[in-house]
Every structure is written in structure tokens, then in C-alpha cells.
């Protein structure tokens, strides 16, 4: 493990450089389906964080005990356990939010991001690294959800986290909180990131040359 | 008539991909060629049908004794169905098996399938309603995949600005497709 990057590195990479939604394009279904407001995005992110960190912890702990042939099934069952816990707790504590998110809490089970992290990282690394990686990825996922949700809420209902931002004259751009708005928001965000990256690459090149 | 509306509602009005954002990974991943997209759609319809039937039997006869095990049971059923479909396709058409690649086993983690089983349960559909719901949802998924693949085949040969290439453009196309499907919203208000 001599060339393994440090714990800090493993944690921080998921936030931005390898952001699950914007860079790896994983977990898109919940990222678009529930993000019609910032608070929904946040709740979804929190639930996913709980599931991802919890299952990474368990998978990493038992990584030497799980037979290779049935590892995917084992991962899925571990994930499903945590999702059931999250689902029932949300239903008990915040019934309104649970209703709004609907089946998408249960659908965390099939979020490719979570299964992907178990297969690619948690089942091969020591406990602290696995948890750090899971926390970073989950953080990046939550940030992406809040960003998409925030933009859609501001444009579509003129508020942010439920706080109205504009006066009465604001005409909400309703399409943004409807399904097409999700696709368009993410598409435009990706364009913005791509063009920023292109400019910064070019700037580096110019600096190198001069 | 009832069955017909369940089918239309699942296929077009509440299209799984474009209105509910389900199954986006294959939607963006496999939608480069019409042919592959269509066949993946068919595989999806098949898995959905079997899942729907299994979910109905499990729910009616076993699961109401232990509803908290629903999620786990469904996912295991789906995983085994997908394994079965995978073996069948591998045997019948190795070329298709290669073309679908990783996305075939990934049907397991296709949220559309699990969503189908869960919604069918929560709506309390009967056996035949469930079958039509699965057929409709699967057809809708196939329709969206094929439409997307058709547009992307055309986009491939046109000139696109650099920053738009790849994922960003697919999202914009999907947004416009989704807007078009919103036009069906008033078709039937009882769904």
C-alpha cells in the first residue's frame, strides 16, 4: 500500500474532482427525479449518505469473509438493509418529506453509485479509507443534488429552501420544476463546467508557453 | 378498457424514462444505435413482465406477513430474473450479448424494474392489471430508448460545438423529448 494516496485525498476526491453526478454520471435517476426543490435534494442526499457510509463500513469490515462469487448479491442485501432502515425512519420522523420523495427512497437500493463504490473501493480497502471514500462520494452527491435542486427551485418557484426570494411580480418558470427542467438544468450545468474546464486548460497552456 | 388505459398511461403519459427519470443509465449509455436500443428495450420488457408476475404472487401469498422484507425479496427476484435473461440471450444471440455488454447485468440495478414492482404493489393492481402495467412501462422505455437513439444517430453526423459534445447534448435532447411527452398529459386524467 505504498503508493496509496492519503486518507484526506481519498475523502476529498469525491467532492469535486470525481464528483459522482457531474463527472462520473452515476446515480442520475434520483439526482433528477427528486430535485424539484433544494430541500428534497438535501433529504435525498442525506438518506443516500447514510446508506453509502453504512454499507461501505460493513462491506469493508467483512471484505475477507465474503466469497467472491456471491459478492454482488451480498452487497445488494447489505445495501437493502440500510435502505429499509432509512425508509422506515424517514416515514416515522418526517412523514411529509417521505411522501414527497415517494418510492425514490426505496430506489436507493438500485443507485449504481452505491453498488459501484462497494465493488470498486470498499471491498478492496481498509476500513478508514472505505469510510472516507464513501463520505466524500456521498458529500459530492449531496452537493450536486442541492445544486440542481436549488437552481430548479429558484427558477421554477422563486424560492430557496422554501424561503421566497422575489417579490410578487415574479412569474415562476414552471417548466423548471417539471421533468424537462431536470434534464435541461443538468445539461446546462455540464456545459458550464465543460467550458470552464476548457478555459482553465487553455490558460495553463498559455502560461507554460510564455 | 381499464387495461388499455393502464397500458397507455404507463407507456406514454407517465413514461418511465421521460416523466419519472427511471432507467437513465441505459437511456444515456446504450442509446447510440437504434438496433441495440430496441433490443435492450425488449430485454427490459421481458424482465419487467416476469418481475411483475413474481411480485404479484409473492405479495399476495407471502409478503403481507412480513412487509418490511419486501424490498429485499423484490431485489433478489429481479437479480435472478436478469441472470436468467442473460443466459438466454447469450445462448440465442451471442452478437446481441456482446453489443449490450455491461448493460445487460446492469438491468438488475435499473431503477425502472424495482419501481415497477413497488408501484404495482402500492397501487394494489390485480394480476392482469399488473401484466398490462409491466407491458406498458416496458414499451414506454423501449420507445424512449429508440427515439433517443434515432436522434443521436443523426446528431453524430452534424456539427456540434466542442463544449456540447457528449453527455451535455444528450441531456438537452432528453429535456426536449421530455417536453414533447408532456403534451400527452391531458390525455387521460384518471391515471
Principal-axes geometry of chain A comes out as flat
Please give the count of helices of chain A. Answer: 8
**What's the total helix number of chain B?**
8
Morphology of chain B? globular
- Could you name the ranges of chain B where pLDDT drops below 50 across 5 or more consecutive residues? none
Give the end-to-end Cα distance of chain A, rounded to a whole number of Å: 39 Å
Helix-strand makeup class of chain A: mainly alpha
Strand-residue fraction of chain A?
under 5%
Order of helices and strands of chain A: HHHHHHHEEH
- The whole-angstrom Rg of chain A is 19 Å
Q: Low-confidence parts of chain A, pLDDT < 50 over ≥5 residues?
A: none
Q: How many distinct beta strands of chain B?
A: 0
Domain tally of chain A: 1
Structural class of chain B: mainly alpha
Report the biggest beta sheet of chain A as strand number plus sense, adding barrel if it closes.
Answer: 2 strands, antiparallel
User: Whole-number average pLDDT of chain B?
Assistant: 85
Quaternary form: heterodimer
Strand element count of chain A: 2
Determine the strand fraction of chain B and express it as a percent band. under 5%
Order of helices and strands of chain B: HHHHHHHH
Describe this structure as you would to a colleague.
- The complex is a heterodimer of chains A (210) and B (191).
- Chain A contains eight helices and two strands.
- Chain A is mainly α and 210 residues long.
- Chain A has one domain (7-209).
- Chain A has a two-stranded antiparallel ribbon with strand order 1-2.
- In chain A, α3 (38-61) runs antiparallel to α7 and α4 crosses α5.
- Chain B has 191 residues and is mainly α.
- The chains are: A mainly alpha (210), B mainly alpha (191).
- At the A-B interface, α2, α4 and α8 of A face α2, α4, α6 and α8 of B.
